[in-house]
């Protein structure tokens, strides 16, 4: 049988107030609608302890010892992918009375160790971290005016049919398979559109639909007809060209063309560390564009491309300014983490 609930502190105070008026326990119980036993126990508690507060109870003894608690936490921190069931099995190997998985989960939660979906990030080797750190240290003192001269560029792919993001619906357990509560998928997808885009502090540059396999020859045409014209129009000469280390970008053909434009004084090429999409603010532009496109549910590549163009040109200056303002703080975070990963939400 469970422990009965305690009467409130306010009622205990009222009991003592009526008791001091020399009211009987029966009268107090009837007046405050509590049991006569509760009235009697409250008066006795006040007389014995001088307090109306709850008595301290020892509670049920813990199923694990302090040493076992430390072992549970240590195992979890040494192997972050170790499940509560696996930890429980290890603990029970040296115990006569087995503990349950819930107990292990409770010990982990008490130390703030919650089960979460692991964040997916590009693999960072030591040399990658060194190059990321070099970039951050080189540009940590850049002001907004310096970052405003950078033309950020990248490619991204958008799906026609459905979204890779999780979709939440409100339903009862029995409505799980209702058409309105199911996200339909197709085996081979409903098509996609690959685009190249650029932006800077002054606004978005050109957005280009990439047809077929994206090769170095096609990327050189994008540089000639879209990247450099966008940089000259939005920033002027010389602007800073940012591009990642995709094999097409770093091909001899494209490197030679960018070098010739650098010699002419048209641009300055920014040396970009590999495996670093999290440093490129255009990734956040792609996320914003994906959210906007998702509102329209395009059903064909043609409609998707039309929506992409319209929403790309509708990206406002305030959104862009926030991304440029973020760059100095981003450099600080990279330096703090010595070139490693950081929580992008806290930048």
TrEMBL record:
Gene Ontology cellular-component terms listed: nucleus
One biological process term in Gene Ontology: DNA integration
Pfam family, one: DDE_3
Molecular function terms from GO: DNA binding
Ranges for domain Tc1-like transposase DDE: 150-294
Primary location class: nucleus
Domain Transposase Tc1-like: 69-141
Alphabetical list of SUPFAM superfamilies matching this protein: Homeodomain-like
Superkingdom of source: Eukaryota
Matching InterPro entries: Homeodomain-like_sf (IPR009057), RNaseH_sf (IPR036397), Tc1-like_DDE_dom (IPR038717), Transpos_IS630-like (IPR047655), Transposase_5 (IPR052338), Transposase_Tc1-like (IPR002492), WH-like_DNA-bd_sf (IPR036388)
Subcellular location: Nucleus
NCBIfam families from the UniProt entry: transpos_IS630
Protein name, as recorded: Transposase
Species lineage: Eukaryota, Metazoa, Ecdysozoa, Arthropoda, Hexapoda
